[in-house]
Known about the structure:
Chain A is an alpha/beta fold. Helices cover 44% and strands 18% of the residues of chain A. Chains A, B: Belongs to the transcriptional regulatory Rex family.
Amino acid sequence: MDKKKNISMAVIKRLPKYYRYLKELLKNDVERISSKELGEKIGFTASQIRQDLNNFGDFGQQGYGYNVKDLYNQIGLILGLDREYTAVLIGAGNIGQAIANYRFNENGLNIAAIFDANPKLIGIKIRDVEIKDIDYLDSFLAENNIDMGIICVPRNNAQAVCDKLVKGGVKGIWNFAPVDLVIPEDVMVENVHLSESLLTLIYLLHDQEN
Amino acid sequence: MDKKKNISMAVIKRLPKYYRYLKELLKNDVERISSKELGEKIGFTASQIRQDLNNFGDFGQQGYGYNVKDLYNQIGLILGLDREYTAVLIGAGNIGQAIANYRFNENGLNIAAIFDANPKLIGIKIRDVEIKDIDYLDSFLAENNIDMGIICVPRNNAQAVCDKLVKGGVKGIWNFAPVDLVIPEDVMVENVHLSESLLTLIYLLHDQEN
Lengths: 210, 210
């Protein structure tokens, strides 16, 4: 799998999109598709698709195109979806509850526990997962093999929560707090910065008006 | 304001980050900052910061750096935050409720109405905004000046909702549904694709393990 190394983030960020479109094709019983057709659906050029996928191996066949099911499965493997990932979610406020309720298990995610500091929330269940007292986070991480921490706490608490998660051995952080976290190099982070997304849209709207 | 045209999306996406850091500096009573110091905080190089900001005008002064308050206000103007933007939110499920509850009004967003098709939700208020029957969306858009539509409906309904919003004169779409919407060129769209964000993190985690 050496080929996987040094692949640009731009390519990596496009993989889930391929995966989503291929899943849709599979649902619609499409058996094969050319890079041109796939490109038209996704809005990429055929050559971009061929280039992207060549990073990971030899898919597709001249004159035939891609076998949809094979390519879907292969991209699933590349994405690492051949196993389940366990997560703890910290912060059961609005966003935290929405994430806990979202059906991410399709994507191989298992939220093993939810933590919050608010006594009113502790004990409540979201999709059969009980909200625990944040004071038990350290011991929970020590006793369970957790891959990922999902941070949904207010900005001022985010770094402290992140530090606990990293200390507890978590290797990935999905961060919804509007801060840039300081983390060791071997811990991966993916940010969802909603305010920044909104400000980008407002900029585009405003720019369009002028 | 001709200088603003043809600015790359990469630069545009960095503006909200500058804005967030400058706000933080302002809160901490920092009056001025050099591009080097600002760069160290944000994780960009000083020259990248100077380049980015030069797209929009002459900020900062050799040997003095940037006046934090001025730069904050200027970037606010560039982002279009000198006026309020009105939005309708469609789909009061988990994500929709979280977004409706989020305090985006700091960013100049006013959610004027929320719509859903579920009779159990219609009539409920979220932060004083009542959830209305989706059947009234068209007439609401006709009677009110709405800038933006926030789409939080399931994937299968997203395009139909988007078409209604566009027909109703909305000029920006903030899309949380896991689909790529087909929209006219003069309507701006910003996607928050949570599953794709998660899959990116899973890829990075998986890649790290190998």
